[in-house]
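Field reference: "sequence" (input) and "structure" (output). Example, RNase H type-1 domain-containing protein:
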Amino acid sequence: MIGDLRSIVAADVRRVDWAVIRWCQPPEGWCKLNNNRAVVAGSGDSAGGGVIQNASGHWLIGFNRWLVDNVEVFNLLQYYNEGSLTLSLVSHIVSMVNRQWSVEICHILREGNKLVDCMSKCASREVLICHHFFPPKVVKLQLEEDLRNTSIERG
């Protein structure tokens, strides 16, 4: 299954020389989960974060987590074998994708994903995982930009 996910994502990643980039709301009746990982240069440490927004772009829930060992995460995804499914995160992702609902996986350029980039960067080393039922102050500007359909030119 992870191989299938990789091929879907890889097929959607294209070289972009110039583009107008903005966060796009999901269709009516859908929710959108954007996630991101931020790496601390030279340390191997990183953090991940994500936000679920509704079709109006409003915040439903957000999360962030400090990730201590990137090598472990990379190896998990690189060498995943369905016969040896042992980690709950991968198991949960696979079970969610396989449910009887529509799932669309696509790559979003960083400039169109600023809200969750900020969520990743504000993860705390002291907290295993933090759920945010309301937007933290540090991401309110990015959330407002999403709601205003603010765009950025890349190129």
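The first strand starts at residue 19 and ends at 21.
The CA atoms of residues 115 and 123 lie 13 Å apart.
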